[in-house]
Write a structure and sequence with these properties.
The structure holds two protein chains of two kinds. Helix content of chain A is about 0%, strand content about 55%. Chain A is mostly beta strands. In chain A, strands 2, 4, 5, 9, 10 and 11 form a six-stranded mixed sheet that branches. In chain A, strands 1-3-8-7-6 form a five-stranded antiparallel sheet, with no helix packed on it. In chain A, β6 and β7 (about 60-65) form a beta hairpin. Chain A is globular, with a radius of gyration of 13 Å. The mean pLDDT of chain B is about 90. The chains are: A mainly beta, B mainly beta. The interface of A and B includes residues 8, 42, 51, 101 and 103 of A.
Chain lengths: ~110, ~120
């Protein structure tokens, strides 16, 4: 079983829709939770960052972490065609190694 | 512009022919790391470096070498590439300055797509 599970999609939604992306994980030691966005032929870029449980909002993006259920989510409101990308969840424990454990990514397509 | 650069971006080679993928960052970051990305597996860490002359293995180090002689550069070396090393490779860097754990914010390069025949 993978440490981090993420539905690969693809997920296709109309412009303006609310998008929900999710990951589950098995390692209860994870403390830092991130969402990266990766456009085609580009490197991942950090979108959202959360420490421990709770919600964090940044513009149209909201990240939620539920450590008791080992479940994290990313919500995108008023989705735009420019949001079309692969979204990767990532998590880590606090060690010098700083290894990020990634989900396999969900491909999102927002139709104009 | 703050960035991580990698070269080459695309490489096709044959089994056993030594190759080096270069990585350079201009953000004065102490920490650098290499990942490989494979379909269905996500990104997995190959090697990392906490600072100059300090390197250590990640999750999938077999078949790879690294060196960190200068702060800005962190090359990935495949001494004898094999077809199972065909993958998309990313270099990443981050600062060691502690800001509520935000030192986990890693900046990624554009990637190097390697094919080993």
């Amino acid at each position: 079983q993978k440490e981090v599970e993420q539905d690969p999609g693809p997920l296709s939604v109309p412009e303006g829709a609310i998008v929900s992306l999710n990951c589950t994980y098995s390692n209860s030691a994870f403390q830092y939770f991130m969402w990266y966005r990766q456009y085609s032929r580009k490197g991942p870029e950090l979108l959202m960052y959360t420490y421990s449980s709770g919600n964090k909002e940044d513009g149209r993006f909201t990240a939620q972490v539920d450590k008791s259920s080992k479940y994290i989510s990313l919500f995108i409101r008023d989705s735009q065609p420019s949001d079309s990308a692969t979204y990767l969840c990532a998590m880590s424990v606090y060690t010098g190694r700083r290894a990020l454990t990634f989900g396999s990514g969900t491909r999102l397509q927002v139709q104009p | 512009e703050a960035q991580v650069t990698q070269n080459p971006r695309y490489l096709i080679t044959v089994t056993g022919k030594k190759l080096t993928v270069t990585c350079s960052q201009n953000m004065n970051h102490e920490y650098m790391s290499w990942y490989r990305q494979d379909p269905g597996l996500g990104l997995r860490q190959i090697y990392y470096s906490m600072n100059v002359e300090v390197t250590d293995k990640g999750d999938v180090p077999e078949g790879y070498k690294v060196s960190r002689k200068e702060k800005r550069n962190f090359p990935l070396i495949l001494e004898s590439p094999s077809p199972n090393q065909t993958s998309l490779y990313f270099c990443a860097s981050s600062s060691s300055v502690l800001v509520q754990g935000r030192n986990h914010e890693q900046f990624f390069g554009p990637g190097t797509r390697l094919t080993v025949l």
